[in-house]
Design goal:
Layout lengths: L2 E6 L1 H10 L6 H12 L5 E6 H11 L3 H11 L5 E5 L12 H14 L1 E6 L6 H13 L4 E7 L8 H12 L6 E6 L6 H15 L4 E5 L6 H10 L5 E4 L13 H10 L3 E2 L3 H17 L13 H5 L3 H13 L6 H14 L9 H14 L9 H7 L12 H8 L2 H7 L7 H8 L5 H9 L2 H10 L11 H11 L6 E6 L2 E6 L6
Parallel strand pairs: 1-2, 1-8, 1-9, 2-3, 3-4, 4-5, 5-6, 6-7, 7-8
Antiparallel strand pairs: 10-11
Helix pairs in contact: 2-4, 2-11, 6-7, 7-8, 8-9, 14-15
Length: about 500
């Protein structure tokens, strides 16, 4: 049987999948970082540029400080950063010198593992981004094969892509990433060996979401092949649902199947207990095992996007057109060259399907996002766009306006704009984020280092009371505890 490592996705992908990426602040991560470090994970899927933006926008937390402090608290476990190539926070492709600085600062602050993902499977883009990462440090670099179902995304397609990105010389390992949870155990048994044959001695990992119930089964099937080095998991309430398989259950299932998993189960249980207590204190939903739903295999639409679309139709008094929109989504996706249904493409495809169903004719109305996609601003589609559809989309004045939109500024121009003396980390944020949000983050100062799930409801109550002008003297008492605030004291 195989020796399997685990990669913990709780702080990034679990948080994103189940809590909308806004569930965790720096203090909440720091509180559990030390114990997480002692579990024995192969790595921790920690952040991305979009999560860094969330830290600034929603919590006024400095994301660079967050990386430094968590990395310091987790010296044994590599922190992982997932990147879509030469992009940082904004979807526009950035100046290569700008990205060089991004990758340098990430590594200097403690990122020791990078995932290189291109939504269009542009091998040249992955090779170029990996080269820059390697030149700016010594972090481990993992190439992503983003799984989807289509006529073109065959086992051979993924094997060829893996072989090509590895030929660049900077990809250390590969993982099969299934964000939609669409990969069946049967497909794993053909896909994983094809990819392994293409990458040789490089390690292979699997990242399979649980959205329709496949994730745990496909992960176990991959382990049984004897060629998978690591399985990605979420801990406690941050596993299952639309997240990854739950860690404790995965360890038990792997060991029951005869596999070896080198983790400290007692420490894993403590970490899981913390996440459960936090979820309860903050009223955050827990992931639950999902029933199999074969309809996802056809439309591949994320649950949140479907809910939003159904609501929009009901508001328009067109709730009876929902099934037609779902069917149209399949057709639009094929016409647009089978974009993988991960952000921002599910929203783009289903919105276009909605326009096609309720409009006077198909593609009479087209969003700017679809226009930019067809014009290649997100990269080159894996499969050709239907020529008739492409012509219909581009034959409108708005396409010509978008064509002349300014590109991402050159690095030298940005430095002149913000001043050569501005610290690198502040400069990188100001270049891609609203000024007021960065100002608020800097004004907030250093993030708190501690968090107690048990104290969270009490602190929330105190903040609410302290915000009332008439609340000059506040006393809360319970057995063994008395808190008194006088004269409008500030609650942090």
């Amino acid at each position: 049987m195989a020796e399997i490592s685990l990669v913990d996705v709780s702080m990034r992908d679990g948080n994103q999948s189940l809590w909308g990426a806004t569930g965790l602040n720096t203090a909440q991560m720091l509180q559990i970082a030390g114990q997480t470090d002692r579990v024995g994970f192969r790595a921790v899927d920690f952040t991305s540029s979009s999560h860094m933006a969330v830290a600034v926008r929603y919590f006024q937390n400095n994301p660079w400080e967050r990386i430094r402090r968590v990395a310091s608290a987790m010296p044994r476990t590599p922190l992982q950063f997932i990147t879509t190539g030469l992009r940082f926070i904004a979807w526009q492709q950035a100046d290569p010198e700008f990205m060089r600085l991004v990758y340098r600062r990430l590594q200097l602050n403690g990122i020791r593992r990078f995932v290189m993902l291109d939504p269009m499977h542009d091998a040249d883009a992955v090779i170029e981004a990996a080269r820059i990462v390697r030149e700016e440090g010594d972090a481990e670099i993992m190439g992503a094969l983003t799984f989807t179902l289509s006529a073109v995304h065959t086992d051979q397609f993924y094997a060829d892509f893996a072989r090509k990105i590895c030929s660049g010389g900077n990809i250390d390992l590969i993982y099969i990433k299934d964000p939609g949870g669409l990969m069946s155990p049967e497909r794993v048994r053909t896909l994983a060996p094809a990819v392994k044959a293409a990458i040789g001695n490089r390690p292979l990992e699997i990242h399979a979401h649980c959205t329709i119930g496949y994730g745990p089964l496909s992960s176990l099937a991959a382990a049984d092949l004897g060629i998978i080095d690591a399985i990605h998991v979420g801990i406690g309430p941050l596993g299952e649902g639309s997240s990854l398989p739950e860690a404790g259950r995965m360890v038990a299932n792997l060991r029951n199947a005869g596999h070896s998993v080198n983790v400290d189960e007692e420490m894993l249980s403590k970490v899981s207990d913390y996440w459960w207590r936090l979820a309860k204190a903050e009223s955050l939903p827990a992931g639950t095992p999902q029933p199999f739903d074969s309809s996802f295999l056809r439309h591949q639409i994320a649950g949140g996007v479907m809910t939003t679309t159904r609501r929009q139709l009901e508001e328009l008094k067109m709730g009876d057109r929902f099934d037609a929109v779902v069917a149209e989504t399949e057709r639009v996706r094929a016409e647009l060259g089978y974009p993988i249904m991960v952000t921002p493409f599910p929203q783009m495809v289903m919105s276009q399907a909605l326009f096609n169903v309720i409009g006077e004719r198909r593609y009479a109305q087209v969003s700017d996002q679809v226009l930019r996609y067809v014009m290649g601003k997100f990269g080159h589609p894996t499969s050709p766009i239907d020529p008739t559809v492409e012509a219909a989309i581009l034959d409108r004045p708005r396409a010509r306006e978008i064509e002349v939109e300014p590109m991402f500024p050159e690095y030298a121009d940005l430095r002149r704009k913000f001043g050569a003396s501005m610290p690198d980390e502040e400069f990188l944020l100001r270049a891609v984020m609203p000024e007021d949000q960065v100002d608020a983050m800097l004004s907030a100062g250093r993030s708190r280092a501690t968090y107690s799930p048990e104290a969270a409801p009490l602190l929330q109550l105190l903040r609410q009371l302290a915000a009332k002008p008439a609340a000059r003297n506040i006393v809360l008492e319970r057995p063994g505890l008395r808190i008194a605030l006088h004269g409008g004291a500030h609650v942090v």
